[in-house]
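Q: What would this complex look like in 3D?
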Amino acid sequence: MVLKSLADLKDIVAGGPKKKLIVAAAQDQHSMAAVVRAWKDNVIEPILVGDKESILNICATNNYDITGVRIIHEPDTDMAVEMSVKMINSRQGDVLMKGKIGTSTLLKAVLNREWGLRTGNLLSHFALFEVETYPKVIAVTDVAMNIAPNLQDKIAIINNSVGCLIKLGYKMPKVAVLGAVEMVNESMEATLHAALLSKMNQRDQIKNCIIDGPLAFDNAVSLESARRKGIRSEVAGDTDLLLMPDIEVGNVLYKSLVFFARAKVAAVILGARVPIVLTSRSDSEQAKYYSILLSAAASK
Amino acid sequence: MVDRVLSRKNKHRIAVAWAQDINTIGAIHRSVKNGLTEAIMIGQTGRINNVCSEHGIDSGLFNIIDSENETDSSEKAVRLVKTGEADIVMKGLVGTDKFLKAVMDKDHGLMLPDAVLSYVGAIEIPAYHKLLFITDPAVIPYPDLRQKTAMAGYAISMVKKFGIDNPKIALIGASEKMSTHFPYSADYAEMKRMAEQGHFGSCIMDGPLDLFLACDAKSVEIKGVRTPVDGDADILLFPSLESCNPFYKALMLFADSELGGLIMGTSKPVILMSRSESEKSKYYCIALSCLMA
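A: Here is my prediction, written as structure tokens for the whole assembly.
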């Protein structure tokens, strides 16, 4: 099965047991709207950890009726984050979401050696985009977390992402390793990585997916472009997951899809004990809502 | 852009290396018919005639020079420009490396002494309020300071041909914050200082800026970052080919955009486009080259 639109996420989540979403420092205007919407849709059960008075104020101001939602009062944000993470560890929650705290504060807690959510895997960012002109949802990684991943990191990023796609219902997702060109060029390290990753996939060192690269963006997503260049590839034109060479490339691509191509987007941090919703202020409410759904689906 | 070229009246002669595919021939045909250019097609005569007749194009509109392979056709096309028999050289179905080798040849090529060879593109994006110029999506993988400086200069010179006297240039990064994690930070700081000293002539330069701060005034407001580019960039300078290349390709495939672009740093305009580019994009490139010729 392949996602045609981000709205499909709702069906996936609705089809499974209801997930508990723990929001750390939940007194956050920007997150609450999306949390409340997902709760009203009856697809997640939120647990709000934070300053109870502020949370209730935000809800009152915006006319959110959250009667029945569990609120754990902890006015200190650092303590609220620690408590949220510890609740995940004691299996009281399935997904962690960032509220009114800095990204680095949350990640520090997630990576805490005593009580954090480390699994030994690399943390990576995974995003789904819905653009009008591509026939299915396209996953992109890593546009926000790992700055300049080495080969080992890229393997971990692929494994995180493929694991997530499989939880969404994919079988053998097609992974394109992005380059500026489709030829291996020794002066561009990303193309060398791409060739190695493809071969490692053929040798079953990276499983459960079909990897090809380097592929330039047009060949990855357009069969016509690939044909015109005479590229023979199982992945070209039919990519499910696009692996970025580094954060510079990923960041620009992500922002151009959102801003110029009006893409719908959902994103999650993978590699910790549970999926983490880590949206930023400038994300739309819709993006936050879809990110909650994606994370819930990924926590299966 | 096309209007601007047509208003200039004088017709340029364009030499096309390995002009054997319909996208290239179609674009040339359109520019000849519309009175932008005269064309010299270099390639296998039989093949060119076949493609023309398959698509109902009158091959009599072009001068055709016979050539048996990609390298030979590239050399012939470059030589025509070098000797003044043509004004513009264009890549057809030949691979970029073979074509550029002919352009860059020390004795017979079109390189200016000590010039940096780079690429500037102009993209028309429906979701953006004006033409956006980008560099470098095609030639320099990881530009150093000297190369970035040259790229900025080329882009500015092209933008000024469009009547924009004080262009806004965003030096693109993953974030607006300076960081030792990002090797471009130091170069950008240096370039901003050069801009203040007037090195680039009249322009407004700032960076690092992410794409939102460069192109979206609303994001500038939300983030509260003060930048003179102010979400209204004319030019985006990218830190690498790797980031610029997928940027424009994503726009073309997913945001309904069209690109025209040129090689810069040569004595005469050089049109180089991906073989998979559409006829329309190739046509815009031809128009752009006429403007710069």
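A: To summarize the key features: The CA atoms of residues 26 and 74 of chain A lie 10 Å apart. The first helix of chain A runs from residue 8 to 14.
Q: Very helpful, thank you.
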